[in-house]
Design goal:
Blueprint lengths: L3 E5 L5 E2 L3 H14 L5 H4 L7 H13 L4 H21 L3 E2 L3 H10 L3 E5 L4 H11 L13 E3 L12 H10 L7 E5 L2 H10 L3 E4 L7 H4 L6 E2 L5 H4 L4 H5 L1
Parallel strand pairs: 1-4, 1-6, 4-5, 6-7, 7-8
Antiparallel strand pairs: 2-3
Helix pairs in contact: 1-4, 3-4, 4-6
Length: 234
C-alpha cells in the first residue's frame, strides 16, 4: 500500500518553461567565459542549484570557492525570480486533479525540489498552491534544498518527506521526477515506485537508460496506483 507520493517540481508538476536551466546556464557561462553544452548541463538537472554551480566551478576552474559559489547562486536566484515575475510558472495539465485524487485515497503528497525555500514559495504563490494537511490544501508537504544537507542523487529529500509524513517503510513510497537525478534519488531511497516523468527536462528515451520502475506522468499516477474512479468523483 502506498502511503506517500513524492513529486519533483519543475518539469514534473510545474511548467516553468525551462527558465531555471536557461538562467543557470547564462549565469555560469557569463561568469566563467565558457559555453555549456547539453552534456555539461546534465549534472545540474534536478540537482541542488548551489551544488550544481560548485560542480561547474570545479569542472572549469579546478576548485569551487565558497564565496564565488554563493555570489553566483544569489545572481542566479535573482534573475530567476525576475523571470518568474514576468512569466509565472503554470501547473502541468491534470496534475492538481491527480494530486487531489491520491490525497482523497488516503495518500500523503509531498513536493521535493532542488530549489531553496524562497524560490519554491514564489512558484507556489504563482500557482495559488497551498501546503498543509487540510483537504483544501494542494499538497501535504514541500521539501526544499533548505531542508537537507545533500541534494540529489542522495535520497535525503525523500527521506525528509518520509519523516514529515510519519512513513518508515520505503515500500510505501512513490518517487516521481523528470531527470536522471530524480530517479537516482528514488532508487537510493529504496522507494517501491520510482517513476520517470516525461513532461520535463529529459526525454523518455534518455530516462529509460537509468534505473526506474515505471514511466508515467503525474496526471496518470492515480491509475498506476489503482486509485478507484469513485475517489475521483468525490
Amino acid at each position: 500500500m502506498v502511503s506517500l507520493v513524492t513529486l519533483d517540481v519543475a518539469g514534473t508538476t510545474v511548467n516553468e518553461r525551462g527558465a531555471v536551466y536557461d538562467t543557470l546556464k547564462a549565469v555560469v557561462e557569463e561568469a566563467l567565459s565558457v559555453t555549456l553544452s547539453d552534456d555539461d548541463l546534465r549534472p545540474a538537472l534536478g540537482a541542488n542549484k548551489a551544488e550544481a554551480i560548485a560542480g561547474f566551478l570545479t569542472k572549469f576552474r579546478g576548485e569551487a570557492d565558497p564565496e564565488l559559489v554563493n555570489e553566483l547562486f544569489l545572481k542566479f536566484r535573482g534573475l530567476l525570480e525576475q523571470t518568474y515575475r514576468e512569466q509565472p510558472p503554470v501547473e502541468l495539465p491534470g496534475v492538481v486533479d491527480a494530486i487531489r485524487r491520491m490525497r482523497a485515497a488516503g495518500m500523503q503528497v509531498s513536493l521535493t525540489t532542488g530549489f531553496d525555500r524562497g524560490v519554491t514559495q514564489m512558484i507556489l504563490d504563482a500557482l495559488g498552491w497551498t501546503v498543509g494537511p487540510e483537504a483544501t490544501d494542494t499538497v501535504d508537504f514541500a521539501i526544499t534544498s533548505d531542508d537537507v544537507s545533500t541534494g540529489r542523487p542522495a535520497p535525503e529529500l525523500i527521506q525528509v518527506a518520509m519523516q514529515r509524513a510519519g512513513v518508515t517503510d520505503p515500500e510505501q513510497v512513490v518517487a516521481a521526477g523528470d531527470t536522471e537525478l530524480d530517479l537516482a534519488a528514488g532508487m537510493n531511497a529504496g522507494a517501491k515506485y520510482v517513476v520517470a516523468v516525461t513532461t520535463g527536462a529529459q526525454a523518455a528515451d534518455h530516462l529509460a537508460k537509468f534505473p526506474h520502475t515505471h514511466v508515467c506522468d503525474v496526471r496518470d499516477l492515480p491509475e498506476l496506483l489503482g486509485v478507484p474512479a469513485a475517489v475521483a468523483a468525490e
